[in-house]
Input
Amino acid sequence: MKIFREILVPLLAVVAAFVVGGLIVLLIGDNPFQTFYLLIANSFGSLDDVGWMLFYATPLIFTGLAVMVAFRCGLLNIGAEGQLYVAAFATAWVGIKFGGAMVNVFGEQQDWSWVSLPAILLVPLCILTAMVVGGIWGAIPGILKAKFGSHEVINTIMLNFIAIALVSYFTQYHYKVPGYAILQTAPIGEAARIPRISQFIPGMSDFVPLSVAFLIAILACVLVYIFLWKTKWGYELRAVGENASAAEYGGISPKKQIIIAMTISGALAGMVAIGEVLGNRYLYYHDFAGGVGFLGIAVALLGRNHPLGVFIAAIFFAILTRGGVFVDAFTQYVSKDLVEVLQAVIILFVACLQRYTK
Amino acid sequence: MIEILSEIFSIALLFSTIRFATPLIFAALGGMFSERSGVINIALEGLMLAGAFTAAVVTFETSNPFLGMFCGMLAGGALASVLAIACIKFEADQVVAGFGINILMFGLPALISSAIYDSAGSTQRIDKEHLLPTFFDISIASVLAVALVPICWYVLLKTPFGLRLRATGENPSAADAAGVNVIKMRYMGVIISGLLAAAGGAYLSIGQSSFFTRGMTAGRGFIALAALILAKWKPVPVLLACLFFGFTEALTIPLANLEIFEDTKIPVQFVQIIPYVLTIIVLAGFIGLSRAPKALGIPYRKEK
Output
């Protein structure tokens, strides 16, 4: 009965989103059925389509897990976006400084690195950097909430703006290749690159940027599940989320749990850098995320704050994200912003249906 | 040193403080009605965007900024009633529902503007003479915002309506027992917040700027919320808190142009983050002194 309700709420929310979205498409003057066909079918046409879709799902799994861990402790982390920006920049920085990166400056090869580590050391170092830096950025609002009681929603939003500005500064003034107009860093060293899935699957094109980061995302789902439901620490974290004062009475410090939850949340958000920096562009490109941190909230809500649900919801929103590109191109009026509207309707419906599941 | 200071602290700074404080005053006063009735309003950002977008479209189409602002406010009120239904009727998590409204207002204006103007980024530019009128560099919206402060003070603290609204946010069961319609008061609080926040948003698109761009509020809804907390949910302190945050934003203009050394300016990114950093610091420093309405965030269910 419980499982039935757990599935029914997300299904109702998705149906509601398509009904509301369909009405909006109709009002704008396009055909809703054609629009929804474009939105969904383009993730399943070929092996490459599936590869692209899973590539879009990878960051959503990480941000969905990030938001979920915070939710389980009773916190809303709207800061995944900022956390993954600082993490991605720091990861690229390590990839440049420790990866023996040669940079082509006006035709002249310059060595921007300090040392050249082998892949076996460099890749774990980069991944660790992504998690630690994301974790620190997530810990800040956690500490502010625990020490001063200031609301994490306002602080995480402010920290998003601060993160994006700071990273843009360092990219623009210190790590951009001189002469390039695009706001991106120099490329990371070859040794920092992680393999793409297309190497292992015959028939998938090399340009599909799906990398082993997707497998790390699946591993993260499993580890988060074990942490939250099979360890004492996870139990304490969830106890605070269920009822902070009861937990405190039981000897658990809510303040400590808040800081722990926000740190883990930030670390998970930071792991978006693995797929983006080490597996896709091989550099830090400013503005790369385009809202995946915020989309993580919808992923966590639709996934009922469970790792398996997060995985499924991430696939669902990845289908929509990929479909949005085609909706932009092949409908007369509807733009990919439709995806954001669907996302909002889903959030509102899940929030409204919440009380019927208890 | 004195030269630098006089370059920063000028009459222009005073004027830009008022300009930047204007949308915050509208939004924070709006948020006050919602939160004093017991409903958290994270959606101020989205409500401002609804006002900004609607005002920009209506003003462009009709060349009448007052009609634009009025329609913007109606849009904010309509959107706020969606939030109200979610939070009050369905007892949704108020923070989550408010966030949903914000996301909706990132996507929906872009969706509509790309359909009618073929540009998802922004709406059409409005001619200068069709924007909200200004007197001596001060927009009529700024005058209205400041005038609203004593009006809101009177309504909230001196009228039976205000008393009922505050009672609803402090102790809904007692208010209910005394014959106050708690549900109705909360609906009114949230809808008023939509009307006012949207007026602030309208000022952004048809006063300060001359068109709507995606996400143009840039966190002002949240800064307004911080101002509201700093002001302990009281109208006159709200004005002061908003002037303070307006001042931090106004500072960015002279600082961005300031030459610290010869030919060296402060990187624009460092200047941009000043309001955000100060919001965090102020919130951390003063929140302990501030007491939220007791029933804030708790849905009310009539006892049977």
Residues 108 and 117 of chain A are 23 Å apart (CA to CA). Chain A has a mean pLDDT of 91. The first strand of chain A starts at residue 102 and ends at 105.
